[in-house]
Sequence to fold (522 residues):
Amino acid sequence: MIWIETIIQGILLGGLYALFASGLSLVFGIMRLVNLAHGDLIVMAAYLILVLVTLLGLSPFIAVLVAMPVMFVIGWALQKFLLNRTLGDDILSPLLVTFGLSIALQNALLEGFSADSQRLPTNSLTTASVGIGPLSLGIMPLLTFVSAVLVIVGLNQLFYRTELGRAFRATSDDATTASLMGIKPANIFATATGIALVIVTIAALYLGLRSNFDPNIGPARLIYAFEAVIIGGLGSLWGTLIGGIIIGVAQTLGAAINPEWQILSGHVAFLIVLLVRPRGLFPRVND
Amino acid sequence: MALLQTHSLVAHYGDFQALFGVDIELAEAETIAIIGANGAGKTTLMRSIAGVLRNEAAAVSYENKPIGSLSADQIMSQGIAMVPEGRKLFPSLSVEENLLIGAYGRKISGHWSLATVYDLFPILGERRHNPGTALSGGQQQMVAIGRALMSNPRILLCDEISLGLAPIVIKDIYKAITQIKAAGASMIVVEQDISQAMAVAERVYCLMEGRVTLSGTPDTLSRDDIHNAYFGAGY
Fold:
């Protein structure tokens, strides 16, 4: 019984990793851009929510709704005025620029908020649990997982049911031909990064409610997100959820055997998948 | 009055000059053909008009407005659509989605819509949910033409639409071109297949090494004229 509970906890934890990873997966899928500042943007969004909570006295769940459009605009502008200039045949320049952005963000956050670790205020709901049969599951992990599934369902609807989604896919296939259709690739990319940062904000909410954060934890979130994306197969959103779940389950199982093995077993699971399926579990056919 | 005109149009790829002062004009409801051998600059000319290659504003005029410096998406919104060389369907999109993306960001208004494109190419209606790239070469070409029509352009640029297709398929495609013409579009047709181009066009320009070497109406041009203009005199 304890094992079943551990595995379920792992699956739910996977939801958090999938939230970390979805924005990364979206941006990579559309413009082949690897954003090394992704983890730091999650931390930045967590601080933004914290500021809204402390200054305006909002509940974190309301504050996230205010933070989402702000982060969309930041993402849009970041892509339009900075990252679009790095796109091209050379894959090194986006890596260097986002690596630099990562360092700049960490230091700016350190300057603004100090190195003290912070946490979003929780209430009784966020620490409550529900019993399902003999199992007892935390409301917070359940909420995280449901949010991750909703985000991925929402993104899939956006991709396959809307005109904007068609433009995303067409631009991802061939930006020059897309511009012959009247699409402005630069704006499509900016919108994609804007949406990615909205997802980042949702991830930041759960990060801040479930654990402490400080300006330096971004890169580790980036690694988890990366591993989830790679396990799932680059550009596949459902694959990203599965990838998050695999890391989550591996971590909780590892921790159940020996608490020191938690982080390690997640990375080992990633390496095993990479050995067996180098292109991930659900690679896109036309890459 | 010319609907579209190029004025001493030049184009470069890095240090390589592909066009040396090309002047062509297209009247309302007219179809012109650009013919020439491989590397003559035909596709470069089309890409310059479509805005894929940017130029001096004055190098291309449309309804007497300079449009040479506009980007491809701006040219498209002016009512000039292109069927690119090599068809360039979007592999992630189905046949129907490929057609719909041709009308991106605008309301479909005018003669051409999904229904009329499916009337023109019935096979596409049957295969609307297939991935665009799962179709045969001829069917892919039909999707590419239909996709450009979806914006109801005033000018349709067709770049090498017969390339790599069987003669029987080429006949079908050109039958459709005749119908598109009848529906009112002005067209620039770029071809290596001279006979098809001459049959559909009111006027012909022959390009060689980035220059117009011959122009006129199909009935006034002799085979020898075209031969010389195509390959250079002395062959």
